[in-house]
Write a structure and sequence with these properties.
Layout: H1 15-46, H2 49-68, H3 73-79, H4 85-116, H5 120-129, H6 132-148, H7 152-175, H8 180-201, H9 216-236, H10 238-246, H11 248-283, H12 288-325, H13 333-358, H14 362-383, H15 388-413, H16 418-446, H17 452-474, H18 476-490
């Protein structure tokens, strides 16, 4: 049965500025991701699971503090149409002061954190990692202002340059024997580079001031976003907390690296699209039809890309990880495959969440996070007690339920139906699943011959070719949509 067009001809003109932004951000981030993946592969071979476990444990403190330091100001600065220069300057000062307080708090509780996680190394790492907060505070306002002004080229260059320099510095320090310190100092350097480049690109730089009274309405508007972030952190990193406490840095190390590797592409994809979609949906806040149309476009294009990407990555990891990282990292495979199984849904969820925020439905995202926490925390509390593999498999069981509730709530917010939002996902999922079956059969047949590098290259080619053929044959409307968007991205 032929598929209906996924968007009307009248919507074509609305894509131009979004395509311009995606072209810059996408190109820069993909280039940076390829470079950093190569650097990460060498770095992983030099480090031990314990190193990644220590850094993941300290990240529980610094990441949570990082979610709190702007008080939701970044979202409000993007979504509000008019922000005075005085308020922008106050935001710079306010975020920096909050970050200093949070950094001091982390330094103070570092000994207790080391005792709780049975690791003295965590104490020293926390004291140094606290520097991330003041440095990150310097990126909050310029990042929001660049996004509001849709200066995607400048945002892309800042992020990509920071990522590449961080990866190079981390590899050099790891080779010099710095162990887990290479990850810490590399991160600090990357944040410094990003902040410096963003401020350099900002034309009308805010002048810091101490008018904190002017920030009260903005903080009030962003308070729900802070609550959502905290819930997201608690739910998304509850497994890290439990494994760090129950298993220690060695057990947590492989699990956290598998989670980081699998989610890195999600972070890049969501970062690429969200930087464009949030201001784009905010610009159409009074046009319900345009927002629903844009939502379907995002779901359809994203589904066509993320289902084959993540599911094939999971299948290929059985050959790729021993080859790239060495035999001591084989414990990565099961958690990585479990994460990639649900990451297509995580990707669509993240993109929908960004659209909801841009459309002004912040309470909807908060309710979705409450549902997420209510479902995943009890399940992870059970799964983590049986080890890293069980904790990863818990996500496969629980997150589809979370996604179902979230989709229902988002459909209500946009005054549309759940089937309408789910329909664009069906055919890409089926085509990706069929491609994975073909690759797995090829993998089993070629395993006996050895030559893992040649096997991996052949499996990548087979998986990509099968998905392309299946989509062209059975999901032609979405295939044409993505090809059309690709042509727009490449157009100069």
């Amino acid at each position: 049965m032929a598929q209906e067009p996924l968007r009307s001809p009248q919507s074509v003109g609305r894509l131009d500025s979004a395509m311009h932004g995606l072209r810059w951000i996408g190109t820069a981030r993909i280039f940076a991701q390829l470079v950093t993946w190569g650097l990460t592969a060498f770095t992983v071979r030099l480090l031990e699971p314990r190193d990644y476990g220590i850094v993941a444990t300290s990240g529980l403190f610094t990441v949570l503090a990082g979610l709190l330091l702007d008080g939701g100001l970044s979202v409000v600065l993007i979504s509000r149409r008019e922000i005075s220069a005085e308020v922008k300057g106050a935001a710079v000062s306010g975020v920096l002061m909050v970050s200093i307080v949070l950094a001091a708090l982390i330094v103070a509780i570092a000994p207790a954190g080391g005792t709780f996680f049975h690791s003295q190394a965590v104490v020293n790492v926390l004291r140094v990692s606290a520097l991330q907060l003041p440095l990150t505070a310097l990126t909050v306002v310029p990042s929001a202002l660049l996004a509001k002004q849709m200066k995607f080229r400048e945002m892309a260059l800042a992020q990509s340059l920071a990522s590449v320099i961080q990866g190079v510095a981390t590899l050099i320090m790891a080779h010099a024997g710095a162990a887990y310190w290479s990850l810490i100092w590399g991160t600090l350097l990357g944040i410094c580079v990003r902040a410096a480049v963003q401020w350099m690109y900002l034309r009308d730089r805010p002048k810091p001031n101490l008018n904190m009274k002017a920030l009260r309405p903005l903080w009030a508007s962003g308070s729900q976003m802070v609550g959502q972030r905290v819930l997201y952190f608690i739910t998304g990193d509850f497994d890290t907390f439990l494994l760090g406490r129950l298993g220690g840095p060695i057990v947590l190390g492989s699990y956290s690296l598998a989670k980081t590797l699998s989610h890195s592409m999600l972070d890049q994809l969501s970062g690429i699209v969200n930087q464009v979609s949030m201001p784009a949906f905010a610009a159409k806040i009074d046009d319900d039809n345009a927002q629903v149309e844009g939502l379907l476009l995002v779901i359809s294009a994203a589904s066509t890309l993320v289902f084959p990407l993540f599911w094939l990555m999971g299948i290929l990891s059985q050959v790729a990880f021993p080859l790239v990282f060495g035999p001591r990292w084989t414990n990565l495979i099961v958690p990585f495959m479990a994460f990639t199984c649900i990451l297509p849904l995580r990707s669509v969820y993240t993109l929908l969440d960004s659209a909801i925020v841009g459309a002004g439905h912040i309470p909807t995202t908060f309710k979705n996070m409450i549902t997420w926490a209510a479902i995943m925390i009890p399940l992870l509390s059970i799964g983590a007690r049986f080890g890293a593999n069980a904790a990863a498999l818990t996500w496969v069981i629980g997150f589809p339920i979370v996604f179902g509730f979230a989709t229902w709530r988002i459909a209500r917010a946009f005054k549309t139906g759940v089937p309408l939002l789910l329909r664009p996902m069906l055919r890409p999922a089926l085509c990706a699943a069929a491609s994975c079956v073909v690759v797995e059969i090829v993998q089993l047949q070629m395993k006996q011959y050895g030559y893992p590098a040649a096997q991996l290259a052949f499996e990548i080619a087979i998986g990509g070719a099968c998905y392309w053929a299946f989509m062209r044959q059975y999901a032609r409307a979405q295939y044409d949509l993505v090809m059309g968007l690709t042509r727009r991205l490449l157009r100069r």
